[in-house]
């Protein structure tokens, strides 16, 4: 169900139209611990025009898929209005990785957990170095031929691996991917804005980006440089969280505080929250098809949904101020066609 307050974009060069904000339920297997809370998040998203819902078999080893399926069934929503995606992971379910044997069974297991006949997009969730990529892509096409998925994509592939996917599909006449799911936020820009740019241009690839708030560090709750008490205390991702904290804040605390408090000032002037500003900045990028929101409490979801309105306030002048605060615009790759000796690099 589309709403006037939500913006929708085509997912790559496909005819699939997705809300610019999506909902990811990775935390559903451990956050809050309430089925009512999980359903209310899904329902609130749909009522606010969100039509894109992302999950994966690895999230809670199937628990997140089960929760999403229950929520959809409980709400009685029109399946045609929703874009449901899941991901098959090379680890976590035995030793067979992304082999034809396991993928054929894995999609059936995922659909059974979600109580669905099909998913709209099926991702290869990380590159599997132990299985020929051609084998995985062949079975993805079989899954599409059997109407268990309509499109497919990659998740956290390198640009080179994505190009290999297209080469394999062209060789065999197979359906190519339409989307890459990757990390993108104010603190980590190089991979998305520089490394993936040629792939976006060459193949018209869509993107469903994750962690637009950088583990919550851009939400405003870390502006003093410290971790709030009790943060992720029950999370199975605590080690990863600490690693990210050290990378983006702990190792450069003074600079990070200046950036974060500066962003707070800009957000206050625009009349939005700092979290809304950070997400709005991400979806302002035309190479972003949808930004996947997570939520560890209902109030966070309410706040994040306001990012679409905040995006409309990002004028060129405001974006320039944000660039000055971030100071991390990626350096473009050298264009050797236009390079001559003794010409200054730009």
From TrEMBL:
InterPro entries, A to Z: K_chnl_volt-dep_bsu_KCNAB-rel, NAD(P)_OxRdtase_dom_sf, NADP_OxRdtase_dom
Pfam family name, one: Aldo_ket_red
Origin species: Blepharisma stoltei
Organism taxonomic ancestry: Eukaryota, Sar, Alveolata, Ciliophora, Postciliodesmatophora
Family: Belongs to the shaker potassium channel beta subunit family.
One example GO MF annotation: oxidoreductase activity
Protein name as catalogued: NADP-dependent oxidoreductase domain-containing protein
Domain NADP-dependent oxidoreductase: 21-325
Coiled coil residues, start to end: none
Keyword line: NADP, Oxidoreductase
């Amino acid at each position: 169900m589309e709403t006037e307050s939500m913006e929708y974009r085509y997912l790559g060069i496909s005819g699939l139209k997705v809300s610019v904000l999506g909902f990811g339920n990775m935390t559903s297997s451990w956050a809050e611990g309430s089925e009512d809370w999980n359903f209310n998040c899904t329902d609130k998203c749909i009522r606010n025009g969100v039509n894109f819902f992302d999950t994966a078999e690895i999230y809670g080893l199937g628990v997140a898929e089960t929760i999403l399926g229950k929520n959809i069934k409980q709400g009685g929503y029109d399946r045609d209005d929703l874009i449901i995606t899941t991901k098959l992971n090379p680890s976590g379910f035995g030793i067979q990785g992304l082999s034809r044997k396991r993928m054929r069974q894995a999609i059936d297991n995922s659909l059974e957990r979600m109580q669905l006949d099909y998913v709209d997009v099926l991702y290869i969730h990380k590159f599997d170095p132990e299985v020929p990529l051609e084998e995985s892509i062949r079975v993805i096409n079989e899954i599409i031929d059997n109407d268990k998925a309509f499109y497919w994509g990659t998740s956290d592939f390198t640009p080179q691996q994505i190009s290999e996917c297209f080469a394999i599909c062209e060789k065999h006449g197979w359906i190519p991917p339409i989307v890459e799911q990757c990390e993108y936020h104010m603190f980590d820009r190089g991979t998305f804005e520089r490394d993936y740019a040629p792939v976006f241009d060459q193949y018209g690839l869509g993107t469903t980006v994750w962690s637009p708030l950088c583990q919550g560090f851009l939400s405003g709750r870390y502006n003093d440089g410290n971790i709030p008490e009790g943060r992720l205390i029950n999370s199975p991702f605590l080690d990863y969280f600490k690693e990210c904290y050290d990378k983006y804040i702990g190792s450069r605390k003074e600079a990070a505080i200046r950036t974060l408090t500066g962003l707070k000032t800009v957000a206050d002037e625009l009349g939005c929250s700092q979290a809304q500003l950070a997400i709005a900045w991400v979806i302002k990028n035309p190479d972003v098809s949808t930004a996947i929101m997570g939520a560890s409490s209902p109030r966070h979801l309410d706040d994040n949904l306001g990012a679409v309105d905040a995006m409309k306030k990002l004028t060129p002048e405001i974006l320039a101020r944000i660039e000055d605060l971030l100071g991390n615009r990626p350096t473009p790759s050298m264009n050797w066609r236009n390079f001559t000796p003794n010409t200054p690099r730009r």
